[in-house]
Specification:
Strand order of the largest sheet: 1-7-6-2-5-3-4
Oligomer: single chain
Number of strands: 7
Strand content: 5-15%
Number of domains: 1
CATH superfamily: Glycerol-3-phosphate (1)-acyltransferase
Number of helices: 7
Radius of gyration: 16 Å
CATH architecture: 3-Layer(aba) Sandwich
Structural class: alpha/beta
Distance between the termini: 36 Å
Largest sheet: 7 strands, mixed
Shape: globular
Amino acid sequence: MPLRSLDPTQPLSQILFYRFCYWLVMLPVTLLYRFRIFGAGNLPRRGGLLVVCNHQSHWDPPILGISFRTRNMASIGREGLFRVPILSQIIRGLGCIPIKEDEGDAGAIRAAIAELKRGRVMLIFPEGTRTPDGEIKEFKRGAWVLLSRAKGDVLPAAIEGAFDSWPRSNHLPSLFGHRIAVSLGKPIPFEELKALGPERGLARLREEVQRLHTELAEKMGR
């Protein structure tokens, strides 16, 4: 696979850094958590794509990142993460966009829209924060602002097992005795969501993520 096809919007040095981090995460996660991906064929090979997923733990961004085998992705992260030494350099190198945690951040939204329009895969967590109990919470309106302005297709995804390994109450993850898996749904056309409007559109996305999550839990014997 040509490296440029992984992310034609980025310089080769950043593509190579992303792939280095990809394998740095893929190998231990596969060995420790028997990691599996369902629906990988649903990921389009090109074009801007907004991915929405439930948010279980700190594991979610890197694990979603290794779930997109044929594409590199960017994500939106809490501004506080960009003040952590070393981590800030890594996530910037991966193309993450900082967003202010306690207020609307028009600059972050504009930056994310620009990346989507350039043809990049962008990951967001519409719940806004990690779940405290493993259940999927309501999706916040900020997700609708982003997708309505980007006017692109949306791919629903679900992750299961990350909460058991690394709940928000723990400072460090458990490395043994857990399984993690991701399910990628089929892209939902923007026009379909637009016709539903903000409230019903977000409900439609949440229902799809919930469905994927429920099916994934059943496949894992939960």
